Amino acid sequence: MTLVPEISHLKEENRQESITTTPGCPKFGFKKPLPSPGYEIKIYPPEPAEPFIDPYITNAAFGVRAYPGYQKKRISLEEYMGEISKFDLPSAYYLKRYVQHQYRHNFKPATIKGTIGTGKQFLTFLNKIDKGNLEKITREELEAFIEHEQDRGLTPVSVYSRLASTKAFLRYLIKEGIVDREVLDRPIRVKVPNSLPKAIDPEDIKRLLAVLEKPLDRAMITVLLRTGMRIGELLNATPDAINLHERKIHITEECKNSTARIVYLSDDAVLALQGWIKNRDERKHFVFYTTRSHNMGYAAARVRFNNHLAKAGLADKGYTLHSLRHTFATEMLNAGMRLEILQQLLGHNSIEVTRRYARLTDKTREEEYFRAMDLIERGESNEHYQLDTELQAILEEKKFLPQHDKELP
Question: In this structure, is the dihedral angle defined by the CA atoms of residues 90, 96, 97 and 99, taken in order, positive or negative?
Answer without folding.
Answer: positive
